[in-house]
Amino acid sequence: MTHNNSGDFKSYSLAGTNQEVEFITSVLKLKNGESVLDLYCGYGRHAIELAKQGFNVTGIDATQDFLDIAVQKALEAQVKVTFKQQDMRELNYDQEFAAVINMFAAFGYFTDDENANIIKLIANALKPQGLFLIDLLNRDWMVRNNLNRYWRHPSGEYVLSYKVQLENGIATMKRQLINQITGTKIQYDFILRAYSLPEMANIFSHSGLSITETYGGFDGRPYSSETPRMIILAKKT
Prior knowledge:
This protein is α/β, with parallel strands linked by helices. The chain folds into 2 domains: 9-138 and 195-236, Vaccinia Virus protein VP39 (Rossmann fold, 3-Layer(aba) Sandwich); 141-191. Helix content is 28%, strand content 35%. β1, α2 and β2 (56-61) form a beta-alpha-beta unit. The termini are far apart. Residues 1-12 have low confidence and may be disordered. One of its GO terms (molecular function) is 2-polyprenyl-6-hydroxyphenol methylase activity.
C-alpha cells in the first residue's frame, strides 16, 4: 500500500510547528521564563518557537549540521537559545529544567539498557515535580498497518519513501529521498526500538517518573492502538 498526501508534510511546515508548540505549551503549562530542554532538537523548530514565547530553552542534538542550521534560524528569529552538541547517553544535568521534551521519535536508537539509562539521565535533569514530554511512534499502530509508504513534497520536487520492518519490537527503517528534477537518490537505513506503553511505564517507574497523561496526536486526541503517535507526559516523583 502506498500513500500520497502532501498533508503529511504538515509537521515540517510553519503551521505544523505552530500546532505542535501550542500542544507542548498547553500540556506543560509552564510559567514564562521557566527552563526547557529540547532533547535532540534537530534544527530547532520547537526550541526557537518556545524561546519566542519567553521560555529559557536549551537545545541538544548529536548532529552538528542540524545545530548549525538551528543557530542561524535563532539569529534570524532574534531569540536566544543555548544549542549544544551532545549524545543523549552523555546527558549530565542535575535538576536544571522544569521540563524536558523529546519529539518526533527521537528515542530508541540504542540498546534497551542504554535507552533505560537515558530516561534516568532525563529524570536527573528535571527539577522536583518537573515534566517530561516524549513523542514516540505507536508500536501497536505499526503492527496493525502496512508501513510501506511514500510522501510527495507539496513543491513536487522531492519524494520520500520508506519501508519499515518490525520484529520483536525492533523497527528497521529504510528511507529513500528522490529529487524528481535531478533524479538524485539518497538512501539511508536506521534501527529504532519501538516500545509499547507498558514498557515505557516500566522504564519510567524505575527512573523516578510517573505517567500522568497519554495522547495520540498533537491535536490532543486520546491515545489508542489506532493512533500513529504515542505521546506521553510524565512527572518526576
